[in-house]
Write a structure and sequence with these properties.
The protein has 217 residues and is α/β, with parallel strands linked by helices. It has 8 helices and 5 strands; from the N terminus they run H-E-H-H-E-H-E-H-H-E-H-E-H. A 5-stranded parallel sheet has the order 2-1-3-4-5, sandwiched between helices. Helix 7 links the parallel strand 4 and strand 5. Helix 4 runs parallel beside helix 6 and helix 6 packs parallel to helix 7. The termini are far apart. InterPro entries: Ester_Hydrolysis_Enzymes, Lipase_GDSL_AS, SGNH_hydro, SGNH_hydro_sf. It comes from Shewanella inventionis. This is Arylesterase.
Length: 217
Amino acid sequence: MALVFRTLLLDIQSFLFLSLKRMLAAAFTLMLMCAPAYAATVLILGDSLSAGYGMPENQGWVQLLRNELPQHTIVNGSVSGETTAGGLRRLPSLLTSSQPDIVVIELGGNDGLRGFPPNQLKSNLTKIITLAEEQGAKVLLTEIMVPPNYGPRYSKMFTEVYHQLADEYAINLVPFFMQDIAADKSLMQRDGIHPNEQAQDKITQWMLPWITQAIDE
């Protein structure tokens, strides 16, 4: 009888131990599910391509990006007509006010349209990258290409600046999101420079994986 009682007691203890183990595992899983996800702040430092030129702001790609990433804060620090020099001047206050985890740099198009020297472009972008990184932000650099108005040599030197900076600072370089859009007149505004409303979702889907990757790194 004592042996049977002892066996029964051991079975009960084993059952209680397994039950407690399962309960703890379930509670831990529930805690993980309920824990708040990492919420990043992403600053878009850009020009008219990111400012939603020629359309309501809520139809631009940055707003569509907000819709895709509602758990994160997307700050649009883009201004139509902005140059790299203008972005550099505005960046300190934007870093202070938004405290971004990631800075997406989409600048340079207006420098190219005005024929600014590539070394000036590189100097300004270098300072922008340095300022952002000094504040502890990751940097995502968007490649910019310019029309061959000033000749193929200038266009090549201009675009190479972005590849040089990506290598020198070991940052991700996003291929120019306008490359395919600019070739499709149905996606462009009448000025032939700015994307229209139909192009905004395409830009969003182009940028989304790069930004989510930066957030998850």
